[in-house]
Amino acid sequence: MAMKIRLARGGSKKRPHYSIVATDSRMPRDGRFLEKLGTYNPLLAKDSEERVKMDVERIKDWLSKGAQPTDRVARMLEAAGVTEKKTRSNPKKGEPGKAAKDRAEKKAAREAAPADDAAAE
After folding, report:
1. Backbone angles phi, psi at 60, to 5 degrees
2. How wide is the angle at C-alpha 42 spanned by C-alphas 35 and 13, nearest 5°?
């Protein structure tokens, strides 16, 4: 059985509240889970202690049993010092898209054109 430690959404529309749960990876996001391990409230300030609450001992126990945290939960565990920080690499994230590159080229061409006209006189 492939185990995951992930977020299960609760709360009303536009007011999310998440539970950190241990579940079988084949279950739906908000479906059946084996154990509730903590809570996450994204509406609170980032420096608030109430934003992320975790039962660290139970999480360590599930990790030792082979449960894999999702990316978001892994980042929370890294911030809490439960797991070591992974190096992530997404070199294309900072690169502008095709439309932005085209706009930059057109702008550079427009700026270069008046300089050429002034040099011709």
Report:
1. -60, -40
2. 90
Query: How many other CB atoms are there within 10 angstroms of residue 28's CB atom?
Result: 9
Select the more confidently predicted residue: 68 or 95. 68
- pTM to 2 decimal places: 0.70
Structure tokens at 39: 């809570």
- The tokens for 104 are 């930059």
User: Count of CB atoms within 10 A of residue 60's CB?
Assistant: 13
pLDDT at 116: 58
Domains of the chain: 3-80 (3.30.1320.10)
Contact 90, 27 (CB under 8 A): no
